Amino acid sequence: MKHILTFGTGLAVLALSAGLALAGPGAAGHGHDKEAAYGKPGDPKKPARVVSISMRETDDGKMVYFPDKVEVRQGEQIKFVLKNNGKVDHEFVLDTVESNAKHKIEMQKNPDMEHDDPNARRLAVSKGGEMVWQFTKPGTFEFACLIPGHYESGMHGTVVVK
Fold first, then answer.
1. Which residue, 138, 137, 93, 131, is CA-closest to 113?
2. Which of 79, 106, 154, 159 is deepest in the core (most CB within 10 A)?
3. Is residue 126 part of a domain?
4. How far apart are CA 109 and CA 42, in angstroms?
5. pLDDT tens string 88-107
6. Distance between CA atoms of 61 and 149, rounded to whole angstroms?
7. For the CA atoms of the chain, what is the radius of gyration?
8. How buried is residue 137: exposed, middle or buried, by Cβ count under 10 Å (0-12/13-18/19+)?
9. What's CA 31's distance to the chain center, in Å?
10. Distance (Å, rounded) from C-alpha 45 to C-alpha 142?
11. Rounded Cα–Cα distance for residues 48 and 77 (Å)
12. What pTM was estimated for this model as a whole?
C-alpha cells in the first residue's frame, strides 16, 4: 500500500511540475453536479433550441463571440453549437459574472488549466463543440473566454433569462 501511495504522489508531483492543471468536478470553484444559479446541464435526449456561437479575433485585435448576447425563457433548454473560427484557442465558460471573475484569476495562475465541467468548453483552432444547458432561474449570466488576456480583449457575452 505504501508503494502505491508513493507512486500516486509521484505522479501528482510530476503532473503539476509539467504545468498541467485540471479543473474538474470537485475542484475549487467547480463541481456542477447540482443546479447552479445559472441553471443545470441539459438533457441531450430532450428538445433544445439551437444557438450557434462563433469565437474569433477581429482585424483590430479584439476577441469576440458572435452573437455576444442570447435571450432565453426560464426553463428553456439551449444547445450551444460552438465553433472556433479564430487563429488561437478559445473557451466558452458559462457561469455568473462573479464566478467567472474568480475563475479568471485562477486561469492567470494556471493558463494551461483544462476544464472538465459541463458548463465549459475549450476549443482549438477550427474545432467545434456543443453544450446543452437548461436555464432554470431568471437573471443575467455570462459566457466568457478565461484564457489570460482574452476576456480583457472583449471575449465575453451575456445570457438573459426572462
1. 93
2. 159
3. yes
4. 31
5. 999 999 999 999 999 999 98
6. 11
7. 17
8. middle
9. 13
10. 25
11. 5
12. 0.78
CATH code at position 154: 2.60.40.420
Q: Grid coordinates representing 136?
A: 432554470
Condensed to tens digits (0 to 9), the pLDDT of residues 144-159 reads 999 999 999 999 999 9
Q: What is the 3-state secondary structure (H, E, C) of the chain?
A: CHHHHHHHHHHHHHHHHCCCCEECCCCCCCCCCCCECCEEECCCCCCCEEEEEEEEECCCCCEEEECCEEEECCCCEEEEEEEECCCCCEEEEEECHHHHHHHHHHHHHCCCCEECCCCEEEECCCCEEEEEEECCCCEEEEEECCCCCCCCCCCEEEEEEC
Is the residue at 22 inside a domain? no
Cis check: omega of the bond before 118, within 30 degrees of 0: no
